[in-house]
Amino acid sequence: MIDRLVRPGQWTLTQRVLPPAGLPRRLCTQSAIAAVGGGTYLTGGVVFFSLYTGLPATQIGLGFSFAGLLGLVGSLPAGHLADRFGGRRVWLAGAVVTAAGFGAYPFASGFWSFLLVMAVATVGQLLAGSGQGLYAVAALPAGDRVRVLSFVRAYKNVGFTVGSGLGTAVLALDSRVALLALVLANSVGMLVNAAHVARMPVAHATGPAGHRPRPRPWSVLRDRPYLALATLLSMVSILNVTIFSDVIPLWAITMTDVPKPVLGVLVALNTVMAVALQVPATRGAGTTAGAARLARRAAWSMAAACPVLALSGATHGWLTVVVLGVAVVLTTMTELWISAAQWFVNTDLPPADRRGAYAGASRMLNSVFQMIGPASTTFLAIRTGGWGWWVVAALFAACAFAVRPAMTAATRRPRYGERTVRVPDTAPAVARVPVTGRSTVRSGARP
């Protein structure tokens, strides 16, 4: 049983690197497999549509914006479907649809067919993400979810790194045939991923939650305390990713004297930290107080990173490299801490039979910040000459101050159908993890 294995103080070095045997290890394997395909596609996808299908850059940009819009409006319905039909079924359906979407990419000969295949792949990814999250919550013991999910994320980072390397190697070949092979191999990989999902043990559910009327997915938007908390967490999470992925490279190239190859070293530093520290960074995230503490750490860490980045614009030589390295360490720790806090909020605060819809609302908020984050943070950091970093830091500091009262309000308000005040810290574990693939997982509510 996993609850005998994941006591942090008792772990050996091997147990800190390898997830517990059984379902946790299978979830990590699946995450790594899917991430290899995702990393490969993100590295070479735009190049494929440009060089293989011949689409102009403006149409490619519109297509990806269309996919983002689908992600925004489809997150809640996808989560509701996972609640209605079960996480594993929706996860498997999404994996198959995603494989079909990638397999159809070579047939996108014009703009409208390009939009069609983008829509298919996006819908598949929405379904797969919603189903996977709900399945993991139903299948894992409440006290160990965050720690196992941290393993899943660490293995995802490993798979993504491998996939990015494969995509880079394919691009180096500078061949249409190689680009075609990249996309088709990704489709085959997604089918392998679907086969892996199909072999996951079924998670059955029992309990009174299934006997009350099931509300519409949009009713989640009436839960204002939860949405306020989720907004704060999404803001810290997505702006952190945006600053690391988009703003720091632009800042380093345009506003500092750092050599361009150093950017690769900074990305490698982030990757190593994400793989090695994701599990230790989740310590204490299994309670309301612990999740709030990690969210505050994340926001303060990012607030500290902003003036450090501003300082790098006034330094020279190796000192600039060191300052940027400190900033990357701070942004990476923000990533690790905020993800752990979000796992707790998305799994322990919602009603057991509506976790999919609540997680969909969080993904919808993520999409909003993904749309407004790049332009706003780039303008504040670079177009102002650097003083805008202090504005961004103040925004993160405000989030740090607001997290604790927002968490308190969200935990004191009963969710839909709950007649008593919810106290997540004392909630009993309601699930068991199977050791073999033939076991059955049972939880206290219908997924």
From TrEMBL:
InterPro entries: MFS, MFS_trans_sf, MFS_Transporters
Localization (cell): Cell membrane
Keywords recorded for this protein, A-Z: Cell membrane, Membrane, Transmembrane, Transmembrane helix, Transport
Record-level GO cellular component terms: plasma membrane
Pfam families documented for this protein: MFS_1
GO MF terms, alphabetically ordered: transmembrane transporter activity
Top-level division of the source organism's lineage: Bacteria
Entry's transmembrane regions: 32-52, 58-78, 90-108, 114-142, 154-173, 179-198, 226-252, 258-277, 388-407
Main subcellular location of this protein, as a coarse class: membrane
Membrane topology, record value: Multi-pass membrane protein
PANTHER family in alphabetical order: MULTIDRUG RESISTANCE PROTEIN MDTH, RESISTANCE PROTEIN MDTM, PUTATIVE-RELATED-RELATED
Protein name from the UniProt record: MFS transporter
